[in-house]
Amino acid sequence: LIIEWFMEALDNTNYLPEAAELLNQNEGALAENMSEIHITRRASAFLFYDLGNKTELEYLLSVLQEMNAQATFLVTMDEATEYAEQIKTLLARGYDLGIALKPQKNQDAYTYCTQILRCQQIFQEQYGYTKTNLVKLPYGPLDDSIREAIHAAGCVLLEHSSAITKTQDEHATDAETVYRAIFGGKHYILRRGHIVYFRMNFYKNSNTILGDLVRMIISRNSIYPIESANTILADKDLLYTYPLPADQILPQVKDKIYTGQLGDDFMDRVEKYYIGFVDARTKKELPGFTSEEIRRINYKGLIHNDENAVFLTFDDWGSDDTITKLLDVLRNHNVKATFCVRTNNVRYNPNLLRAIAQEGHDIVSHTDTHYVLAIDKGNSGFDSLTEEQQQELRADLIRSYQVLQSVVGDVKLENGKPALTTYFRPPTLAVSRIGMETVFDCGFTYIVSGAYTSQDYIAESKEKLLADFKREIRESGTVVVMHMSDNSLYTAEALDAFLTDNESKPASKQLVFRRFSDYLDGNYVNAAR
Q1: In Å, how far are 218, 398, 459, 484 from 42, measured between CA atoms?
Q2: What is the pTM (predicted TM-score) of this model?
Q3: Rounded to an integer, what distance in angstroms lies between the CA atom of residue 14 and that of residue 157?
Q4: How far is C-alpha 279 from the chain's CA centre?
């Protein structure tokens, strides 16, 4: 009797010697909290927690099936046995499981590690499910004992990018009202690797609100497949570490932008390595330059070549919706382009920047905050930067490159060249002598404006923008300035039509499309004016 009591007591405390062994081997290492999966796979992840309401679950599963969506369902150790039939239903329909680990007072790493291992054991023994290495706290504080336990157990600690269920909506009866309260009419698109977290068994007055919300979010806010976090994390080829470790960054691009690289040959650099803009060719538009210096500047915005090549470029930054449409157009036409990236919002979506590079396109700095190289005075022309503004620009340039380097510094194009370049695109194409001095002093090798700026962000229709493209993109060497911002509503459609029209022409009449890096190799210099 005493032995039976002792064994039952051990079982109740979840005594598991393997947990102690794993923690000893782990030596205190802590799991990183993953609020976004750093991956370029075209997929977002849905997580659900809190089984129990069978009616709600059945409706939710019918919606997921209708929307062809997968998901991960988070289960506690107790739920793993209490809701066996619901878990069997989930697995029979192809959904994945994760472990919900509830924080508790006065618990140590050993206790948490034991819970994880017990849960894995139940999944394997009762359900034949062996893929459970994902752990999430459904609520509560995350402390180091939990992180240590998760790392020791060889698991991944998930957080979430977005949590959908809100306390104030607990008694809601209308899904549309809840949806509007969450998104507030904003254009919100789920990102690659975006983790969306839902509470089940939450809405007290409806068994359908959760499923209806899932349908709305997939229909209105998602352009990518909805997959389980397990499936996304299994795509090892597209996973990466963000920010990139220093030893992974290619030597050709690592830390290339810093001050003190100008030397004494500024005007020689401008003459050779500034590819200008047709509307910047007088002292009014080029503050700080003398008339003699301006005569040396090539303002035509062309990269000369012998293959009837033009250069498509996209400035600024945007959402997955806008940029993925551009990437699809370029991929469908087998065209490579140059993306000039404003970086201050990249940290919210590094996956998208990396996806651009992995598609084979050049990555160029467009500053961090869209910091201009000359001050626009309207009809009066432009002013040079002050000393203070020059210092701000210098810091901005270095910060911009560091952001780019931290995301794509290891990516190579199909020809072996780095996707990250040391080229620079001036915001608004405005330049001044002091601004260009600062850019070259930081180590940028070419400053490239363009021959044609589409102003696609104010285009009124696809048809008008396409007509502009056909009229303006004709001369070999033309550098075309477009935008990837969300207000460039018709760029992808118009570009698709333009490229289709180009392909319909005889081969001898067709344009070809190149990246900056296909020509700007350090040996390329501007032709004489």
Answers
A1: 14, 30, 29, 18
A2: 0.96
A3: 22
A4: 34
